[in-house]
Design brief:
Chain lengths: 200, 200
DNA sequence: ATTTCCATGTAACGCGTTACATGATTGG
DNA sequence: CCAATCATGTAACGCGTTACATGGAAAT
C-alpha cells in the first residue's frame, strides 16, 4: 500500500505559506507557536524537515535573502502544485482529535498520591492555562506581517475573499479560547472538590 | 543524562492495575478505550510492551490463567515496588497538555477549500463527538469488574478510601463530558457562521 | 455466512522530540 | 553582563501506530 507523501504537519506549514505569503523557517516556527499551537505543535527541526520534503515534492520554492553577520534567510513560497495539494487535502476526512494530558492522567489516579501533590499540580496547571488564555486573547502580537502578493495569474485564493479568509481564523481562535475557559473552570472546580474532601 | 525508565502510558497501565486490581492485557486495552481514551489513547501492542517493560522493572507480577480453546490469560498485578513508582510519579510536575486535531487545522485554512468540503467535515465531526458524549455519559458499561483484593498487609491504598477514590474518577469523567460539550457547541456555531456566509 | 468477541503477541516504520552546533546583535 | 532574538540546520532516539499473525466461539 502507498505511504502518504505528507502529514498534518506538512499541511500546517503549507497552509501558513498559502495564507501568510512567503516565509522563512524561522517565521514559520513563530506562527506555529502563536497561531497553531492550540491544535498542532511543531519543533523548529521538524519545520525545516517539512520544508525540505515539500521542496522535493515541488510544493514550495525557495529564494535566498542575503544578510550580513547572520545566516541568510531562506524564504519559501507556495507553488501552484502546493495549492493543489492543499486543496486536495481539504477534501479528505480528517483524523480524529487526540488529547494527551498528563495532568488528567494523574488526576485519574489521584487516590494514589499525597493530597498536597495533586493540589500543587492543579495550581501549576491553573497558572499555565490562565497564561495561555491571555495569549490567545491577544494573538495578533508578535506575528510576522501578512504579505500576500497578487500574482499575474489573478487572485491566489479562488475560494474566499480577504474578509472571508478571516472568518476561519476567528473561528479557530474562538475555539482555543473556549477550550481554555472550559479547562480552567474544571480546574477550579476540582480544586474546590478536593479542598472540601480534605476538610471532612 | 539518564533516560526515564517509564512514560505517561506506562503509568496509565500501572494506575489501572492499582485501581482495578489484577488484569490481563486484553482487559487493560478495554479500560484504556473506555476510561482513559479521553486523556491518553493506546494501541494493544503498546500495552503488551509496557507490561513487559514493567515486569522487567519489578513493578508488576504475572500469573497465568489456563484456558481451553483460547490463549491463556496472563493476569498482571501491581507489586509494592510498582506502588512506590506510581506514588513517585504523582509528585513530579506533569507534562503540558497536547491537542492534535486535524479538523481544527483544516478549519484554520478553510479558505483554501471548497465550502462543501468544510461543511462535510464539520457534519462528520458532529456525529463523532455526539457519539463520544453519549459514551462518556454511560461509561460504566463494558468495564471489567473492579476486584480489589485486600492483602494481608492491610489496605492497598494508604491515601484514600473506596469512596474517596471515586471522587477522582468522577472529576475526570466530568472533564471528558465538559470537553465534548464545548467542542460540540463550537462545531454547531461554526456550522451556522459558515451557512450565513454562503447565503450572502 | 460473516462479523464481533476473546486473547496474545511480533515487526516495521516514522513522526516528533531532545540535544547538539554556531554566532552576531540588542535590550535590561 | 546576561538573556533573548535572529537564523538554520543535523543527529539520535523512541513512543506510538499500523500491519502482520492466529484461531475458536458466539452472535447476527
Amino acid at each position: 500500500m502507498d505511504r502518504p507523501e505528507a502529514y498534518p504537519i506538512t499541511y500546517g506549514v503549507l497552509g501558513l505559506l498559502a495564507y501568510w505569503g512567503p516565509l522563512s523557517g524561522y517565521d514559520l516556527k513563530q506562527l506555529f507557536d502563536h497561531v497553531l499551537s492550540a491544535m498542532w505543535s511543531a519543533a523548529h527541526s521538524q519545520i525545516y524537515n517539512e520544508l525540505k520534503r515539500m521542496k522535493g515534492l515541488g510544493w514550495v520554492e525557495m529564494e535566498r535573502e542575503e544578510q550580513e553577520s547572520r545566516p541568510d534567510r531562506k524564504v519559501y513560497s507556495i507553488t501552484p502544485a502546493g495549492r493543489a495539494a492543499l486543496e486536495s487535502w481539504q477534501q479528505q476526512p480528517p483524523a480524529v482529535l487526540q488529547l494527551r494530558d498528563e495532568l488528567l492522567l494523574k488526576m485519574m489516579f489521584g487516590s494514589f498520591a499525597p493530597p498536597e501533590a495533586i493540589s500543587e499540580n492543579i495550581r501549576a496547571s491553573i497558572a499555565l492555562h490562565e497564561q495561555r488564555l491571555l495569549q490567545y486573547r491577544q494573538t495578533t502580537q508578535h506575528l510576522p506581517v501578512r504579505d500576500q502578493p497578487r500574482q499575474a495569474s489573478g487572485r491566489p485564493n479562488p475560494y474566499a475573499s480577504q474578509e472571508e479568509e478571516d472568518i476561519y481564523f476567528r473561528l479557530v481562535s474562538r475555539f482555543a479560547i473556549n477550550f481554555e475557559q472550559t479547562y480552567l473552570n474544571w480546574l477550579y472546580e476540582a480544586m474546590e472538590v478536593l479542598e472540601e474532601q480534605n476538610e471532612e
